[in-house]
Design goal:
This is mannonate dehydratase. The protein has helices spanning 41-56, 64-73, 81-102, 106-109, 129-141, 184-202, 218-228, 247-252, 272-276, 292-305, 320-332, 346-351, 377-380; strands at residues 4-12, 18-25, 30-34, 118-126, 146-151, 179-182, 207-211, 235-237, 259-261, 282-283, 309-310, 339-340, 357-359, 362-364, 392-395, 400-401. It has 403 residues and is α/β, with parallel strands linked by helices. The strands form 3 sheets. Strands 4, 5, 7, 8, 9, 10, 11, 12, 13 and 14 form a 10-stranded mixed β-sheet that branches.
């Protein structure tokens, strides 16, 4: 049985910050796991280096479940994004090691492929509706079958999901948190028009998604869902903060638009009531923030009982290691729904060489043993960490609001 003899935390910033855990066994096999928590990267790096890595040395790498339970129950202070991201990094790395030793891609160890590939959605954003439609058409030309639509809101200087002209969208944009301004009333006027124009211009053969980013009250979300119903949205994402899971019951009472939530969830307990009461249609928890492949399988198994599907977060603040893990996970489960896909920069891809690929609207993790992704440590060392915070949001009168 391979034993863990070394583990190290690698922080790099090829255009944005990433934290990686690399575990090495006594037979020379190595595995990598993503430990990136956007805006709080060094908290996870410290948690891993100071508290987790010392507990790994000498353990048998094949005992993934036992190590997961040890790190979760053994810490006493359970859950939370820092803890669960650290556990996820260990979990991914151990699945990577197990696959390499077995000579199989991880999805084969999870039961094999349940589909040909994982449908992914692109991001189309623009300052105006016309700009967004043009971006959506470009994504469709690239082969995407699903597109998330976000556009600027007239009267607001900036809008979530909309990049500055000619730039890639990266929300963690400043050394200290920048402050955005928000108006729910202005937003609610523009989104139905965006979807009306989108269906006229893009047709009905493409899935259209939209991210509210926790900014509405339940009744406001119900009103927006009802306004968008004629345009058949694939989902409305993060309609309202989900700390009160029962809030989604009120949204359900007012719209049949499918609901997705959970990119900030870190355990099954965050979505247990949402799933069991069938208050959502897609759970967006992701491998890196929800305890790794091991815990995501538990979430998916519970969701499957209630016909809830997965729709995992996949922005560029998740490294290619997490994207690979998400694809192995998504390919293997029966209730996969869709996977978010924001392509990384060429700079990032060089640091994290990977086997996954995109074609005809689907992504596949590849068939290399393990996760099929690695980190070029020498190249990573040339990209120094740069502190970057996510923004905060205020209403026009200065009230702090959900970003």
């Amino acid at each position: 049985m391979p034993k863990i003899v070394h583990a190290r935390v690698i922080v790099t910033s090829p255009g944005r910050n990433f934290v990686t855990l690399k575990i090495e066994c006594d037979d020379g096999t190595t595995g990598v796991g993503d430990a990136t928590l956007n805006g709080r990267e060094l908290a996870v790096a410290s948690y891993l280096a100071e508290h987790v890595v010392p507990c790994l040395i000498g353990r048998e790498a094949h005992q993934i479940e036992d190590i997961w339970q040890y790190l979760y129950k053994g810490a006493y202070w359970r859950r939370g994004p820092v803890t669960m991201t650290a556990i996820a990094a260990v979990d991914m790395a151990l699945w990577d090691i197990k696959g390499k030793i077995a000579g199989l891609p991880v999805y084969q160890l999870l039961g094999g492929a349940a589909r040909e590939g994982c449908m992914v959605y692109a991001h189309a954003n623009g300052t105006t509706i016309d700009d967004t439609i043009a971006a959506a058409k470009a994504a469709m030309d690239e082969g995407y079958l699903a597109v998330r639509l976000q556009c600027g809101v007239p009267g607001l200087p900036s809008t979530y999901g909309v990049a500055k002209h000619g730039e890639r969208y990266e929300p963690a944009d400043a050394d200290l948190p920048s402050e955005s301004v928000w108006s729910t009333s202005k937003y609610l006027r523009v989104v139905p028009e965006l979807f009306r124009v989108a269906r006229e211009e893009l047709g009905w053969d493409v899935h259209l998604l939209h991210d509210i980013h926790h900014r509405l009250t339940p009744i406001e979300a119900g009103r927006l869902g009802r306004d968008l119903e004629p345009y058949r949205p694939f989902w409305l994402e993060d309609a309202t903060p989900a700390e009160n899971q029962d809030a989604f019951r009120l949204i359900r009472q007012h719209t049949t638009a499918p609901l997705a939530v959970g990119e900030i969830f870190n355990s099954v307990w965050d979505c247990k009531a949402l799933i069991e009461n069938q208050l959502i249609d897609y759970v967006r928890a992701t491998v890196v923030h929800a305890g790794g492949i091991t815990h995501m399988r538990r979430i998916a198994a519970l969701a499957d009982l209630y016909q809830v599907r997965t729709g995992s977060h996949g922005a560029t603040d998740l490294s290619p290691i997490c994207m690979a893990a998400a694809l192995h996970f998504g390919l293997s489960i029966p209730n996969f729904g869709i996977q978010e896909h924001m392509p990384h920069t060429e700079e990032t891809d060089r640091v994290f060489p990977h086997a996954y690929s995109f074609a005809d609207g689907l992504m596949h993790p590849g068939d290399e043993p393990g996760l099929g992704v690695d980190i070029d440590e020498e190249l990573a060392s040339t990209h120094a960490y740069k502190r970057a915070f996510l923004p905060v949001n205020r209403l026009e009168d200065g009230t702090l609001w959900s970003w």
